[in-house]
Design brief:
single chain, six-stranded antiparallel β-sheet, two-stranded parallel sheet, 6 helices
């Protein structure tokens, strides 16, 4: 049994239930005759951004709730109150990988890092009692266009009728889930009087981890950031973020890039 995979997807499902209840959204279906280049309209992009902004507001102001949800989810996994895809009910998902080359004109090829799609279905029991699927699309070439490498969507369904309950953009939802797990680890394992927090990495996930960890580690007064270089832009942005949004906790920030 792959516990890591179970934890990942079922925790994501539980957090999606929480978010969808607070920020219900819908995305209109595309007309069949639209081409691939036309499928994401300006209105759709704006709605997806608004959804992500709602999730950002939630996970920033109520990160403690996200940590609590992860703790409850881990308990359900321990009880076996979940199902994932595949014949053994523990598959991380079904992956769609493109070939390196094709003789078919216009056929998608794997010409960039991490170009793939993954469908990750699961059921989670307990008070959630819901089915859902994370749909993951990724293409490393996106960075050249100034858009995220991966674009995530999530759908929730009534487990009894199959009726859709929510359909949402899920990039920040995924970030919140990832951050809540080390937040839970800190809650259960860290010394409560700890004063120094070391951040290994300084990207968007680091922000989510910091928010979640700080919900229980209220004595932290020093943050050390390990980044790729002393001039790391992401480290500088993380420092600015911490100082701007967490000064209400009277945190004294000591910015220190640790050498490799």
């Amino acid at each position: 049994m792959n516990v890591k995979r179970h934890r990942f997807l079922c925790a994501f499902l539980a957090l999606a239930v929480f978010v969808s209840a607070l920020f219900p959204v819908s995305v209109s279906a595309q007309e069949p005759e639209q081409t691939a280049a036309e499928t994401l309209t300006a209105e759709d992009a704006q709605q997806m951004q608004q959804t992500d902004q709602a999730v950002a507001a939630l996970t920033g102001s109520d990160a403690a709730k996200c940590v609590d949800i992860m703790e409850e989810t881990i308990g359900l996994l321990e009880d076996g109150d979940f199902i994932m895809g595949g014949p053994e009910h523990n598959s991380h998902g079904i992956m769609l990988e493109f070939p390196k080359k094709s003789n078919i004109e216009g056929f998608p090829i794997n010409d960039g890092a991490d170009r793939r799609f993954i469908a990750m279905p699961a059921y989670l029991g307990g008070k959630f009692h819901v089915a859902g699927c994370k749909w993951y699309g990724s293409n490393g070439n996106n960075r050249r266009m100034g858009i995220p490498r991966s674009n995530l969507m999530f759908i929730l369904n009534d487990v009894e009728t199959g009726a859709p309950l929510a359909f949402m953009a899920a990039n920040l939802l995924s970030s919140a889930r990832t951050g809540a797990m080390p937040g839970l680890a800190a809650k259960l394992l860290a010394k409560k009087d700890s004063k120094v927090l070391a951040m290994i990495g300084a990207g968007p996930i680091a922000k989510a981890c910091f928010r979640a960890i700080m919900t229980n580690m209220t004595n932290i007064d020093t943050v050390k950031i390990k980044a790729g270089s002393l001039k790391s832009k992401t480290a500088a942005q993380l420092k600015e973020y911490i100082e701007k949004y967490f000064m209400y906790n009277v945190i004294h920030i000591l910015y220190n890039i640790i050498h490799k």
